Amino acid sequence: MATPVEVSTETMMGTKSLEFTVTDWDLALPAIQSLAQDYGAGASGPVFSDWTRSNNQLAWRSTFHELNPMLEIIKKLGPVLTDIPGATLDKFVTHAPTEWLPAIRDATEDLQDVYYYETPAGMRTGCYSKTGSDVPPFDDELGTLCSSHPEFTIRDWDSAKYLVDEYINRTRGEKDCIYFGWTRLGNSLHWQAYFPDGDALRYHYQNVRGLLDALTEGPNPPASLDHFRIHGPAAELDKCRSIAQGIRHIFFETDERIKKLKQN
């Protein structure tokens, strides 16, 4: 297994994340299964796509290595997102390189509650692959892939910058980190990190916990933690629950009733 490598922000991936509140699962499930079938991972679409659930909150996340496939799916989804029986779309979030944003904004101009996160100006971000490639391998044949998504409100960007850079330095040494990157919207800072299983996510958490505390704790911390979401299969998330104590984590478990298409 090759040592992870850092690649430029030009190869940073794009993500669309949709959040729903489901009021009637019997009504909503057929339409959601259809969306998963039609817009799952494949050669012409996202490289990874999954549906995870926390009580009545449902998240649909898809990752892309290129802009055009992301735009095509967004344009097709627009007319159907508000017509899912038994479910309400709460939020449509995109994370993408800054140069992608004009096209993404155009594609979502008819949608409400869309939030656009972009590469933080002047701050290092990175993409790491256990294959040594500049394209992360989102291959989830084992069905164990996990991800973490904390979000912070930054009070002092100058003080936070060193810690944000240090996150990347620490993560670069993790041989099983598939992807790690930062995005920003105003004073909100978000990280995305993907791992092949719960063991790798647990190791990452232990590796950066001191930095997380330095960023958000103490008499005058440069940031506050708004939420910390972890997504993955229940069995993999169980490996991480004990180390999550003391932090407001929300665990989103893979919903096995929704068909997950594998990467081609």
Molecular structure report:
The chain is built from six helices and ten strands. It is an alpha+beta fold and 264 residues long. The longest helix is centred in the last third of the chain and has 19 residues, at 198-216. It has a ten-stranded mixed β-sheet. α4 (157-172) runs antiparallel to α5 (198-216). A hairpin with a 2-residue loop joins β2 and β3 (57-64). The two termini are 22 Å apart. It is 27% helix and 30% strand.
Write the layout of secondary structure elements.
Elements: E1 14-22, H1 25-38, E2 48-54, E3 57-64, H2 67-77, E4 87-96, H3 101-107, E5 114-118, E6 146-154, H4 157-172, E7 179-185, E8 188-195, H5 198-216, E9 223-232, H6 234-237, E10 249-254
Parallel strand pairs: 4-5, 9-10
Antiparallel strand pairs: 1-3, 1-4, 2-3, 2-10, 6-8, 6-9, 7-8
Strand order of the largest sheet: 5-4-1-3-2-10-9-6-8-7
CA distance, first residue to last residue: 22 Å
Structural class by helix and strand composition: alpha+beta
Query: What summary fits the major beta sheet?
Result: 10 strands, mixed
SS strand fraction? 25-35%
- Average pLDDT level: 82
